[in-house]
Amino acid sequence: MNEKENVKHIIEYVGGEHNIKKVWHCMTRLRFDLYDFSKINREEIKALEGVMGDQLTNDQYQIVIGTHVQKVHEALTNELNIEENSEESQSASTKKKGFFGALLDVVSGVFGPIVPAIAWSLDD
Length: 124
Hints:
Elements: H1 3-13, E1 20-25, E2 29-34, H2 42-47, E3 53-56, E4 61-64, H3 69-80, H4 86-111, H5 115-123
Antiparallel strand pairs: 1-2, 2-4, 3-4
């Protein structure tokens, strides 16, 4: 997968560089705080190579990348010309959400990537 090309598309499909307030990552997802969620082109993002899915919550847009999310995040921050501070942003987000919200993020981050495999095996 070419991270540099994918992040250019991701930036475009989340509404452009000026629509991004903040971006960070957890173990498997890119996480965005955006100014206008209506600018997201979810179908195009889900069609990108290496994207396993997405999730739109009240205050955050998440793109499920998988275990190589750190490489994608690094390419994204380089493209946006911003400093990497994923740990600081992640801990601030966890404090804002509280314990239960953070626990749900961990559970969904762990089990989210295997849901397609489970669904596929149930089709047989």
